[in-house]
Amino acid sequence: MNLLDTNTKIENNLKQIEFYQSLYQKIQSKFSFLIVVYSFIGLYIVEIIKFPFRKFDYTYVIFSIIFIITLAISLYRTYCLVQPENVSYLNEPKYFYNDILNDYQEKLRTDDEEILNEYLKVTYLLELEDVLENNTKVYRKKSNDFYKVFKVLIPTLILYLGLSSFVIIQKKEEQNSISIQNYKEILNYIIEKNMSEDKKPADKKVEKPKIDLKMVIKTAPIVVKESVMLNKHISDSKDKGKKK
């Protein structure tokens, strides 16, 4: 293989351009990973910031400040990562065998295909080299930016997991202490109530007045004689009157 041959140079440059384009696309796909990580951090960051205002802890405050600083740095570097870059792309083939070919025909004043083809290949090669040079710089810059983000994001994530775990544990302890206090209050209330009921004086027995049975008036109930065809209402008092 002759590396100085124009065709070989064109082929090698094309391969390198495709290679760096695939690498650049992989960096773009990695950005979705950063979105997932930042979304995970956003789930509990408010509680992490609010916790020192509810319960001050000197060590917790120091680590939370470090966490906020590292998070701010990672966000800034992520911002630099997503900044647009000038990525180069080749012109369409017809641009070379139409526009450039016409320019060469006018400039060289010839229609010899072999000569024109050699000039076109050189022009095409120069554009390939420009595209490869620019895209290589873009890839290396974005790759370096992603490495910087990842280097800061790892300790940020570790601090986040530690601080969020601490806040969750403290909340559970507070809930348990509140439930124990409520249980004690309920128990004390029941004990005090039972003691107060025991201290109440016993009810005095009320003596009922004695009565003379001879003075009691006896009444007779109303007796109703009922028939399917005819109902007769006869009071017991009338029957007693007739007998008399």
Gist?
The chain has 244 residues and is mostly helical. 75% of the residues lie in helices and 2% in strands. The N and C termini lie far apart (154 Å).
Topology of helices and strands:
Blueprint: H1 6-42, H2 45-54, H3 58-81, H4 93-108, H5 113-199, E1 224-226, E2 231-233, H6 236-243
Quick tags:
single chain, 2 strands
Structure characterization notes:
With 244 residues, this protein is mainly alpha-helical. Helices cover 75% and strands 2% of the residues. It has helices at 6-42, 45-54, 58-81, 93-108, 113-199, 236-243; strands spanning 224-226, 231-233. Strands 1-2 form a two-stranded antiparallel ribbon. It is rod-shaped, with a radius of gyration of 50 Å. The termini are far apart. The relative contact order is 0.10.
